[in-house]
Amino acid sequence: MTRDLMFQSEIRNVVRSTYGRLPGGAGRAMAERLYSEEQLAGLPDDAIDWSLGVGNPVAHAALRPGERIVDLGCGGGIDSILAAREVGPTGTVTGVDTLTEMCERTRQAAGTAGVAEWCDAVQGELEDLPLPDDSADAVVSNGVVNLSPRKSRALAEAARVLRGGGRLCIADFVVNDDLPPEVLTSSAAWAGCIAGALSEEVLVKKLMKAGFTEIELGERIPFGIDDVAVYPLFDDAVIQLMKRVVPEPEQRRIATSVIAKAVRAG
Ligand SMILES: C[S@@+](CC[C@H](N)C(=O)[O-])C[C@H]1O[C@@H](n2cnc3c(N)ncnc32)[C@H](O)[C@@H]1O
Q1: Which of 139, 178, 194 is CA-nearest to residue 15?
Q2: What are the Cα distances from residue 76, in Å, to 23, 27, 60, 196?
Q3: Does ligand 1 have an atom closer than 6 angstroms to the CB of 76?
Q4: 144 lines ligand 1 (CB under 6 A)
Q5: What is d(CA 44, CA 247) in angstroms, rounded to the nearest whole number?
Q6: pTM over 0.90
Q7: Domain coordinates of the chain in residue numbers?
Q8: Which terminus of the chain has fewer CB atoms gathered within 10 Å of its CB, N or C?
Q9: Which residue's CA is minimally distant from atom 14 of ligand 1?
Q10: pLDDT tens sequence across 129-173
Q11: Is the CB of 143 under 6 A from ligand 1?
Q12: What is the CATH number of domain 8-175+197-224+256-264?
């Protein structure tokens, strides 16, 4: 068994180094599964090729023209650009990512998509957002909160930057039962949003504690081991490990992608 990923700094380093050396995202195949044809039309190829999310939060966020949006863990920028299209030039989109190279990808893709004037990206951590209090109407995120070793803190930061009545809409994996220890301690499985996944119950509790109300979980998409194998985060060794230690029936649903919506109280 690999060493337990018990230290927050260790998890942070694994996530940063894994995403820092990725050759590309899950590509068009996964994007076509998650996004509508209409959304994908006209998006820069790079934004689609770097798509690494697990759902389609912008489709559920009911963004309106003129709103101020934050995209937590913007990566290659696909959701930031989709959000920028919804809010238009009277609104703003701020992507936040721990990696400067991801911020640069989002900026470049926003330029190609013609939304750079109101869509930018800043380097920062989910757990310490470089943004003022009450400065956003909506926060979206896709496959990122699970990567944080301090999810309560990350959700509290999302609540802090939202104005009272502002909306949160995130896509992430949830799991029913504890995964086998070999998977929980695999750094690739953590970087792939699986080892750090919460149960639905714990996610709802953390959202409530962070100051959110009107919490709704919806659009559940099952992901089997063969589905997650599409992401470049999982090499053959970790796929084989999961096939060996996860019981056969659960291999077709190792995690479920869920859309979590909530409103910042106050
Ligand atoms: C699975 S990718 C998702 C990217 C993008 N949301 C998408 O749907 O394509 C996770 C992204 O979150 C960033 N990230 C991971 N942990 C983070 C943290 N603690 N703070 C800020 N960004 C983080 C990574 O650098 C990476 O770009």
Answers
A1: 194
A2: 12, 11, 20, 22
A3: yes
A4: yes
A5: 40
A6: yes
A7: 8-175+197-224+256-264
A8: N
A9: 73
A10: 999 999 999 999 999 999 999 999 999 999 999 999 999 999 999
A11: yes
A12: 3.40.50.150
